[in-house]
Amino acid sequence: MTMIAQTGAAPRLQTSLSVIILGATLAALATAPMWAGRAELRLLMEALSYLALAQMWNLLAGYTGLVSVGQQAFVGLGGYMFFGLAIFGGMGVLPALGLAAVGTAIIAIPTGWLAFRLNGAYFAIGTWVIAEVFRLGMAQVGSLGGGSGISLPVDVARSLADGRAEREMAMYYIAFAIGVASVALVWGLLRSRWGLAMTAIRDSELAAETVGVSTRRLKFMIYVLTAGFTALAGGFLFLQKLRITPDAAFSVNDWTAFVIFIVVIGGIGTIEGPIIGTVLFFALRQVAADWGTWYLMLMGVIAISVMLVDKRGIWGRIESLTGWHLLPVKRTLD
Amino acid sequence: MTKLLEVSGLTAHYGDFQALFGVDMQVEEGETVAIIGSNGAGKSTFLRTLTGLRPSKGQEIRFCGQQIAGLPADQIHKLGLAMVPEGRRLFRSLSVEENLLIGAAGKRKGPWDLKKIYDLFPDLVAKRNNPGTALSGGQQQMVAIGRALMSNPSLLLCDEISLGLAPKVIKDIYEAVPMIRAQGTSILVVEQDVSQALAVADRIYCFMEGRVSLTGTPDSLSKEQIANAYFGIGEAA
Questions:
Q1: B71-111: pLDDT as tens digits
Q2: What pLDDT is recorded for position B237?
Q3: Which residues cross the membrane (chain A) (predicted)?
Q4: Is there a domain that residue A72 lies in?
Q5: Tens-digit pLDDT profile for residues B18-75
Q6: Is residue B235 pLDDT above 70, yes or no?
C-alpha cells in the first residue's frame, strides 16, 4: 500500500488540541442523556441530524462540485419510506430506518441518471424540480395520508423502549450514531483511494479527468451514497416529529437552504466546516429564533458577510491561517 | 515503425461553431510530433477530442490500432494516452509528490516512477512536500509533465507547455523532451512557439482555422511556407 505522508508535520500542539477537542466533544455528546434536560436533548438530536445532512451536502457539493438544491427529495423519501415500512411493513424502528436509506439510495439511481444529464446551474434546478415532483407525487398517495400527511402510531415509537425517559435516550443514541457516522463516513472516504480522486475533482475537474479519474462514475457513486445517508437522517427527523406531510418532508427551506447555510459559513470542502456551521446555526437559532423574519434576514447577512470576507468559510480561513486539521486526512492510493 | 495514433477526418463543434474541419494526423511509435498554429486554430480542441474530454462519438481515432472515439476520458487514459493540460492545472490541495502519485493511479507498467521523474526534474526533489501551487511556473509545469508521465503513457500529449513561462524556463522544460523520448514515450506537443516546436519535432503539423494547413519535417519546410500556413499570409514573420 502506498501511503502518502501529509504535507508538513502538523505541530504537536495542534494535534494535541485536536485530540482534546474531539475527545471532549465526543464524551460530552455520548453522556448527554445524563447531563442534559429533555429540551436540550431534543435540540441535540436535531443538531446531530442536521450535522449529517450538512456532511452529506458538503460531500456532494464541496468535493464533487454537484451543487444540489434538491436534497429535500431524499429527506422526504427517507421519512415517507420509514413511515411506510414501520406502519404497513410492521418493521421495528432501526430496520425500517436502514431499509428506508437503502430504498432511497436505489431510487436515487434513476433520479441521478436524469439529473446527471444536466450541468452546473441546470443540475441545481433539475434536482429541485425532481424534489418537487416527489412532493406533489407523495400528496397523491392516499394510503400515506395524501396532502395532509400521516402520523406514526404510538406503538412504533414505543417499540424502542417502554418508558418515556428510556425512549428518549434510545432516540438520542440513534441521533448520536447518525451524526458521528456521517463525519466518520466522510473522513473514511477521504482517507480511502477515492479520497485522493475526490480531492482532485474538487481542485480541478478537468485535470482529474486528464489523470484518468473516472469523474462521472465517482460523482454518481457519491450522489447515490449521499442520497441514502440523507434519507437515514430524514427518516430519523420524522421519527422525532412523529408526523409527516409532503410540505414538511420535501421542504427546500428546512432540508436544503439551512443546510447550505451551515456548510457555506462553516467552510465548504472541509470535514470540519459542517461541524462548525451546525454549532453556529443552532446557537444562532437559540438566540434569534423569536425575532421572526429578522432572524432569517440575519442569517442572510451572516452568510453574505462570510462570503465577502472569505468564501472558504470560517474553517477554511482558520485552516489557511494555521494549517490546522482537526481531522487530518492521510491520503492513500490503494 | 508502427502507427501509434491515426486520426482521420476529425471534426469538432461548439454549438453552431465548427472548430475542426476533417483533420488527419498520424503519430508513429517513438516519434515527437508538434502541432503549431495561432490562437483559435483548433489545436487544443484537437487534443481534448483525442483524450475524450470532448465528445468524439462516431469519429475515426485509432490508438494502438484500437478505435477510441467515444470512449470516456479515463478509459482512454488507461490505454496509454496522457495529457499535460494547458495551464498546468495542478491539484492545489495536494503536495508535489501527491500530484505525481495520483498520475500513477491507473498502475500501467512502464519506465516511469517517482525516482525517474525526480531524475528528469531534479528541482522537484527539494519541493516534494510543498503544495503544488507554491512552486514557480516552470516547476509547476514540471510537476504537470511528471504527473502525466507517471501513468506510463505510450503517447504524451503536451498542450502549450511554454505558455506564460520565461524563455530560460521554456528551454529547461524543452530539454526534458529528448529524455522523455529516450524512455520510449512518444510525444505530441501543441505549441504557439514555432522555434521550440521545430527544434524538438520529427514532424510538424500546422493548424489554421481548424484545418491542417501544412505538414512535413522541420528541415523540409521553409520559413515562408510556415509563415504562410501559420498566419495565412505569404510574407509575414
A1: 999 899 999 999 999 888 898 888 899 899 888 877 788 88
A2: 40
A3: 17-36, 48-69, 81-109, 170-190, 220-239, 259-284, 291-309
A4: yes
A5: 999 989 999 999 899 999 988 888 998 999 999 999 988 888 999 999 999 989 998 9
A6: no
Picking from B97, B102, B151, the nearest residue to A200 by CB comes out as B102
Alpha helices in chain A (DSSP H): 12-30, 32-35, 38-58, 64, 72-87, 93-115, 120-138, 154-158, 164-191, 193-203, 205-210, 215-241, 246-249, 252, 258-266, 272-288, 293-309, 313-322
**A2 lies in a domain?**
no
Q: Identify the contact set of chain A against chain B, taking CB-CB distances under 8 A.
A: 2, 4-5, 7-8, 193, 196-197, 199-200, 202-204, 206-217, 331, 333
The whole-angstrom separation of Cα B22 and Cα A110 is 38
Contact: A4, B77; criterion CB under 8 Å: no
Tally of domains within chain A:
1
Partner-chain residue, chosen from B52, B74, B101, that has the shortest CB–CB distance to A213: B74
CB atoms within 10 A of CB A120: 10
Q: Give the sign of the dihedral formed by CA A72, CA A75, CA A78, CA A81.
A: negative
Residue A150 in domain: yes
Percentage of chain B modeled with pLDDT above 70 = 97
The answer to whether residue B222 is domain-embedded is yes
Phi, psi of B79 (to 5 degrees): -75, -10
Domain limits at A237? 36-252
Task: Name the residue facing A216 among B72, B89, B102 (closest C-beta).
Answer: B72
Taking contacts as CB-CB distances below 8 angstroms, the residues of chain A near B130 are 7
d(CA A83, CA A125): 28
Q: What are the backbone dihedrals phi and psi of residue A240, each rounded to the nearest 5 degrees, phi first?
A: -65, -40
Residue B157: the pLDDT is 93
In chain B, positions 11-70, which contact chain A (CB-CB < 8 Å)? Answer: 51-53
Confidence of residue B128 (pLDDT cuts 50, 70, 90): confident
Q: Specify if B124 maps to a domain.
A: no
| pTM to 2 decimal places | 0.83
Q: Is B80 in CB contact (< 8 Å) with chain A?
A: no
Looking up residue B10, the CATH number of its domain turns out to be: 3.40.50.300
B140: nearest Cα among B180, B183, B169, B181: B169
C-alpha cell at B60: 475515426
User: What confidence tens digit (pLDDT) does each residue in B177-228 have?
Assistant: 989 999 989 999 998 888 888 888 999 999 988 998 889 898 888 888 888 8
Count of domains observed in chain B: 1
Tell me if B207 is assigned to some domain: yes
Cβ contact A333–B104 (<8 Å) = yes
- B204 within domain boundaries: yes
In angstroms, what separates the C-alpha of A219 from chain B's closest C-alpha? Answer: 14
Contacts of A217 in chain B (CB under 8 A): 74
B147 interfacial to chain A (CB closer than 8 Å): yes
ipTM: 0.80
Locus of grid cell 431510487: A107
- Domain hosting residue B80, numbered range: 3-88+152-231
